[in-house]
């Protein structure tokens, strides 16, 4: 059975805009990380209350003095207009933690991705969705080692995957999501990010003479580094570029969706495919172009904090729709995750 909370996407966007987030210093390895992140308690309480009134829904939540969010259960509701009704059962977060907590201590979720996941996003006015993921998880630590401007190739060659593999332990998770910087040509210039085009084990020689692998080769090798240590891996295709920029919302999956799925098959049972792009595409189509266009202040790739909050919520929805045990650590934090399983 899967667990969901349902509210209007518009109300979720209102919460994201109203709740300020503070960030502490980075704390993971030579490449940085998110450090500590927390909601402002008073702002969170008022924002959630306002959104709940707007959506004519109720939720029981308390924001503790430490700014952690504790929710005893998540419930099912049906919503109209921009949300899709889903059915489920309530889940006790305490039971979820007990079911999955590592016997050697608190498990860690490592994030490996580009600017759409990273702290700071793509610059002023934007934020990566990985910054908001910790608010939806309990009983785990989240280390955001996403790095702006990276691809599966450059993340590999800069030893960033290896850095994670060096510290990951059995019972941990690694979420891998690339694709925005993996395209391009290798014949006229080499930006050190472009992968060899192909769905298998093809190789290319760049203009610089470097042997370049395909996206599936880099991702599969990285995932196997993690599973060899006993960690579970979640592999996702990239988040969508603004699917509504033409005035009509329409999401088409990029080739990296199939590549990510094939990498999961190559890794085996310790890997899970989550189609993050499709979930976000569906949510943005429900919201419509006027709302979604406002999520992209600088370009069509990097969402604002408000937009990235919804992007993070859709990852959580996809996680709940999956069979990955990390779903048992999900706790409702903003009163809603809207949508249906893909």
From TrEMBL:
> What InterPro entries does the entry give?
GDSL, RhgT-like, SGNH_hydro_sf
**Signal peptide segment:** 1-18
Name the Pfam families for this protein: Lipase_GDSL (PF00657)
For this UniProt record, give its keywords in alphabetical order, as a comma-separated list.
Hydrolase, Signal
Gene3D superfamilies from the entry?
Answer: SGNH hydrolase (3.40.50.1110)
Which GO molecular function, any one, fits this protein according to its record? Answer: hydrolase activity, acting on ester bonds
The answer to keyword Hydrolase applying to this record is yes
Q: Which domain of life is it from?
A: Eukaryota
The entry assigns this protein to a family as follows: Belongs to the 'GDSL' lipolytic enzyme family.
Q: What is this protein called?
A: Uncharacterized protein
């Amino acid at each position: 059975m899967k667990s969901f909370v349902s509210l209007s996407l518009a109300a979720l966007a209102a919460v994201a805009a109203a709740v300020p987030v503070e960030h502490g210093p980075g704390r993971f390895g030579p490449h940085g990380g998110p450090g500590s992140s927390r909601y402002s308690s008073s702002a969170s309480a008022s924002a959630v209350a306002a959104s709940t009134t707007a959506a004519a829904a109720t939720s029981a939540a308390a924001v503790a003095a430490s700014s952690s969010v504790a929710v005893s259960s998540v419930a099912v509701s049906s919503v109209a207009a921009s949300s899709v009704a889903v059915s489920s059962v309530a889940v006790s977060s305490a039971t979820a933690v007990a079911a999955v907590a590592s016997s050697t201590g608190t498990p860690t979720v490592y994030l490996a991705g580009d600017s759409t996941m990273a702290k700071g996003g793509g610059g002023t006015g934007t934020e990566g969705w990985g910054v908001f993921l910790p608010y939806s998880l309990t009983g785990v630590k989240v280390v955001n080692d996403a790095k702006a401007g990276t691809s599966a190739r450059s993340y590999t060659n800069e030893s960033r995957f290896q850095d994670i593999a060096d510290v990951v332990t059995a019972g941990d998770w690694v979420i891998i999501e690339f694709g925005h910087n993996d395209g391009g040509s290798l014949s006229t210039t080499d930006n050190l990010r472009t992968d060899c085009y192909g769905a298998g084990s093809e190789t290319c020689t760049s203009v610089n003479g470097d042997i370049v692998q395909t996206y599936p080769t880099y991702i599969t090798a990285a995932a196997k580094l993690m599973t060899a240590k006993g960690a579970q891996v979640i592999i996702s295709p990239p988040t969508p570029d603004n699917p509504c920029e033409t005035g009509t919302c329409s999401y088409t999956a990029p080739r990296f969706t199939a590549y990510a799925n094939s990498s999961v098959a190559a890794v085996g049972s310790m890997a899970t495919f989550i189609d993050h792009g499709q979930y976000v595409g569906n949510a943005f189509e429900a919201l419509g172009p006027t709302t979604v266009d406002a999520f992209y202040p600088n370009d069509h790739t990097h969402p604002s904090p408000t937009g990235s909050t919804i992007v993070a919520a859709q990852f959580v929805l996809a996680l709940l729709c999956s069979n990955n045990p990390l779903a048992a650590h999900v706790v409702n934090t903003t009163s809603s995750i809207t949508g249906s399983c893909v």
